[in-house]
Amino acid sequence: MTSESDSLLLVDNSDGVTTLTLNNPAGRNSLSMAMLQALHDQLVVLADDAATRVVVLAASGKVFCAGHDLKEVQGQLGSTPFMLSLFELCSTVMQQIVNLPKPVIARVDGVATAAGCQLVASCDLAVAGETARFATPGVNIGLFCSTPMVALSRNVSPKHAMEMLLTGEMISATRAEQIGLVNRVVADSELENTVAQLAATIASKSGHTLKIGKQAFYRQLEMPLHEAYAYTSQVMAKNLEAEDAEEGICAFLAKRPANWQDR
Questions:
Q1: Residue-wise over 171-185: b if at least 16 C-beta within 10 A, else e?
Q2: Phi then psi for 240, rounded to 5 degrees?
Q3: What is the DSSP letter of 214?
Q4: How far is residue 164 from each of residues 49, 62, 122, 158, 253, measured CA to CA in Å?
Q5: What is the pTM of this model?
Q6: SS3 string of 86-127?
């Protein structure tokens, strides 16, 4: 990555958990082209990084992510190629998160709006501080949150998604938990520790098994019921051929900790 992207996105790995921190608090951690490129490049690296078992997505400052950089957008008004490049890169990053063979947890401290809300919705899990807030407010400036809608509508019910999209109003962390946008809400002071414990719990599992499970989860969601069962039956049968499945079963029956080989 370039020095600019290095400063925009901080990377830290500890005990199998890699934390990516959006690091432009003065710019409300907006998803500028540079920020999106930094995320894209790092996600490419993490996809094949054996030292990473879980990814945590966090942010510096009081705003998790305010969405796209509207000053950057304003400067390119009239340039359809730029706009297409921006939204295509953003869509690619969101799909990278979903397709990453490691679980991704959003640690939401502060406001997440528009594409920032999309970022939270794209993660596999999300934990929010009690003062966090969420919105898809594009309708307020004449720009419907169409790409954020994709991730949002795959996390919450259609009516809840439409209410957020049509009103543009901010919702509380508690409301976000009620409608399924986040997994849990904790005191702001407990947010970092709670996410660390959650990430450590997941990181203690077989990385190979997590990869199989995450891929299968998203694939079966788009299938009719009978196809989903047929597909997941094949996945489980194949999963049982893995060394970690044999080790896990033997360890369980022997009442000892498993020694994962991630294969």
A1: bebebbbebebbbeb
A2: -70, -10
A3: H
A4: 37, 22, 16, 10, 49
A5: 0.94
A6: HHHHHHHHHHHHHHCCCCEEEEECCEEECHHHHHHHHCCEEE
Task: Scan for tokens 């994709």, then name that residue.
Answer: 150
* Segment 215-237, tens digit of pLDDT: 999 999 999 999 999 999 999 99
Instruction: Compute the distance between CA of residue 49 and CA of residue 87 in angstroms, rounded to an integer.
Output: 27
CA distance 134 to 242: 41
Token pair 């078992």 in the structure block, residue: 53
Tokens describing residue 129: 């501080």
CA dist 45 and 151 (Å) reads 23
Single out the residue of 101, 109, 104 nearest to residue 59, CA to CA: 109
State the Cα–Cα distance between residues 114 and 127, nearest whole angstrom. Answer: 18
Nearest CA to 184 out of 203, 197, 168 is that of: 197
Distance CA 22, CA 55 (A): 13
pLDDT tens by residue, 152-190: 999 999 999 999 999 999 999 999 999 999 999 999 999
User: How far is residue 94's CA from residue 40's CA, in Å, rounded to a whole number?
Assistant: 9
| Three-state secondary structure call for residue 28 | coil
| Chain centre to alpha carbon of residue 59 | 13
